[in-house]
Amino acid sequence: MTGDLTVRPDVPDERSGGGEPSEPEERLRVSKALAAAAKGLDPGGVPEALCRACMALLPVSGASVSISGGATVQATLCASDPTAARLAEAQYTLGDGPCRSAVRQATAVLAADLTTAPDSGRWPVFAHEAITLGVRAVFSLPLGVGAAAVGTLDLYRRTPGGLSARDLRIALWTRDAVTFALMELHAGSRAAERAGEEGVASWLEASEAGHGEVYQAVGMVMVQLDLDPEQALDRMRARAFTQGRTVTEVARDVLARRLRFAAERDAGSEDTRRRDAGGGGREDNR
Q1: What is the pLDDT of residues 232-254, one digit of tens each?
Q2: Radius of gyration (Cα) for the chain, nearest Å?
Q3: Residue 215's CB: how many other CB atoms inside 10 A?
Q4: What pTM value is reported for the model?
Q5: Contact present, 47 and 171 (Cβ < 8 Å)
Q6: How far apart are CA 214 and CA 250, in angstroms?
Q7: How are the residues of the chain apportioned to helix, strand and coil, as percentages rounded to the nearest 5?
Q8: Are 257 and 222 in contact (CB under 8 A)?
């Protein structure tokens, strides 16, 4: 099963009989499970609790929530486990992956087997990274209202296979609960009440703590190379990719003055240009 919202059921649909609960009964059961997971928690902890609840409700190995404030600005709000966090970080570093596609298209993006075509070719580099982490299938569901996607609920599993029609409904109900939790998290603030990009930016504030270092480092690279923010972030991503690191790790080196990006026009030598492209050698620590 691949493609947006294209589902090949792995189990019979409950409405076809066989003693399965009806859809309203199933939704009530899921609602109770999600409510129980979030009961008594501070609003800031609800999205993570819902991520963990996904693992009990669905045949998945882990989940994460990412917030997006644009085509290139994205951060992880929460993750159920280290692998889920690493998957989200890989997409942030690469600037590509199922969650990026889900945000751009504002629709669910489902990849049942990253080891075979066509899924293996949709995001080749991300697919390689995911397989290295032991992940075989990923499902990204956009968060938000209507066509305005402000992030994703991302699910993964260690074995190949799609979601059944029943499982997809449960995943979408959980997605709705996460969207509501994010809205509640910022309810009452003037920024959260504004629509459009300003509203998206207010939701992004919840995840800035995790990627604040990246934003600060982008500012430094902008000055070093006289670039705009997107170009500076692209340079950091390229360095991270060539060195097999995350963009967050590169950002920490920039902030600690262990790494300085040298403008090619000022480099003065091919060796310096190779260093700036991640080709090895000692970093310029000026």
Answers
A1: 877 887 887 777 777 778 888 99
A2: 21
A3: 14
A4: 0.64
A5: no
A6: 8
A7: 55, 15, 30
A8: no
